[in-house]
Design goal:
Oligomer: single chain
Helix content: 55-70%
Length: about 110
């Protein structure tokens, strides 16, 4: 990936490039959901920006990381992982939100290095 494209994407991401996503837990689920929702909006913006960039492997890899985050976030919302009440499957929620957080970390690492 070109340095110019990395800089463009990092500029869009702003300070969120260094954000570590939370894990929903009792008492923090709703706030954690807000953090994930904000990250999802940023990821959607990056996905739009990638559409105008080359279709080579580094760009495809980044697009895959962004897509994985969005899918994991969507699944966690559907499972009510970010609700005030304890979800029916807290272990699944923990796994899926961890997957989303790792894909976000991988995406930011790709852009930073």
């Amino acid at each position: 990936m070109s340095d110019e494209h990395k800089q463009t994407l990092l500029a869009e991401l702003g300070t969120a490039a260094t954000v570590q996503l939370c894990e929903p837990a009792p008492g923090t689920r709703v706030e954690c959901g807000r953090v994930f929702a904000a990250a999802s909006r940023l990821v959607a913006q990056l996905q739009l920006s990638l559409k105008g960039m080359p279709k080579t492997k580094p760009y495809g890899d980044l697009a895959g990381q962004l897509s994985l985050f969005q899918k994991a976030y969507s699944t966690s919302k559907n499972l009510s992982c970010f609700g005030a009440k304890t979800p029916k499957n807290p272990d699944i929620c923990q796994s899926i939100t961890r997957l989303a957080a790792l894909s976000y970390l991988n995406m930011t690492t790709t852009l930073l290095y």
